[in-house]
Each structure stands twice: as C-alpha cells, then as structure tokens.
Amino acid sequence: MNQLAITVIGRDRPGIVADVAEVLARLGANLTDSTMTRLRGQFAMTLICVGPTAAEAEAALGPIAADGHLLATVRAVVGEGEVAPTGEPYVLTVHGADRMGIVAATTRVLADVGGNVTDLSTRLSGSLYVVVAEVDLPPGAADEVAGELGRTAAELGVEATLRPVDTDLL
User: Which one of 17, 45, 129, 157 has the minimum C-beta count within 10 Å?
Assistant: First the structure.
C-alpha cells in the first residue's frame, strides 16, 4: 500500500477541502492524518493518505491547481510509518507584543534539550502575538525547559507557559 504526503496551498475559496477529498476518495485513497488552516486568506492543507501511487495522485489533483490559484504537491512516504512519541507531552503557550524572533527563540529552547514540536499554531491579532505548540520533551526535562523558557520570554518581552498535557483528555 502506498503512503503519500500531500500539500495543497494557495488563495482560499469555499470548497477546496471537498474538492481535494473527493478527488482522493475517487482514487481509493484513505486519509489517515490531515490538518488544514487558513492563514491571512491563504489556504494550507497537509495530509497523509494510503492507496494510490504518487503519480496517480498528482495527475488527479492537477485539475484542482490548473487555474494557478492552488499548488498541490505529492510525495511518496517510504518506510516512515507512524512514529511513537518518545517524550512527555506538553503544551507551550506564548503571548505578548509582536516582535521578530518569538517562534525562533522559544522553539530553539525546546530543540536544545531534544524536545520535538508536534503541532504549532501562531496568530497575530493587532499587536498581540500568540503561539500554541504541542511538544514532546525528554523525560525529566520539563523543569529545565520551563526555566529557560522563562528567561527567553523575559528577553523577548512576552509571557510563556509550559504545562503537561492531560493525557486522560486525549
């Protein structure tokens, strides 16, 4: 069974998700993981599916991108099935006045201890910038990370909070 990573990006309009899902369903592709968002009027979707070949999916998605407003890419995913989390799940939230480097500095703190960002969302509302990230941290690293995030946030003039994920809710 072929596993594919597909991205669709471009100017938002109603019906993109339905169009992509219908094309893939007709091909016999099973959507296993997906995420979609709209960013300042731009549509962004990433999904993993199993079924058709990359060439079949590219050909089928071609008409969706034919008008030049969307770009669809397909990549075969080889030997990379689902990876079990190797750390402890946490949620990082950062908020404060918008300024350059917030995401870079805060995610560097995580990376430096071997933490992995598994989901990240940012929003700018006026001058307020908000980051919400799901992260896996190495066992026992949370206190060190929280301290370093506090120092980094103070340098940036923002507030950062790191809290464990309540696994009973997942």
Answer: 157
The model carries a pTM of 0.80
Nearest to 86 by CA among 132, 139, 164: 139
R_g (Cα) of the chain, nearest Å: 19
Sequence-distant contacts of 112-117: CB under 8 A, at least 24 apart:
112/148, 113/137, 113/138, 113/141, 113/144, 113/145, 113/148, 114/87, 114/138, 114/141, 115/87, 115/141, 115/145, 116/86, 116/87
Query: Among residues 63, 38, 44, which one has the least CA distance to residue 6?
Result: 44
For 101-151, how does the pLDDT look when each residue is reduced to its tens digit (9 = 90+)? 999 999 999 999 999 999 999 999 999 999 999 999 999 999 999 999 999
Question: What digits encode the pLDDT tens for the residues 16-32?
Answer: 999 999 999 999 999 99
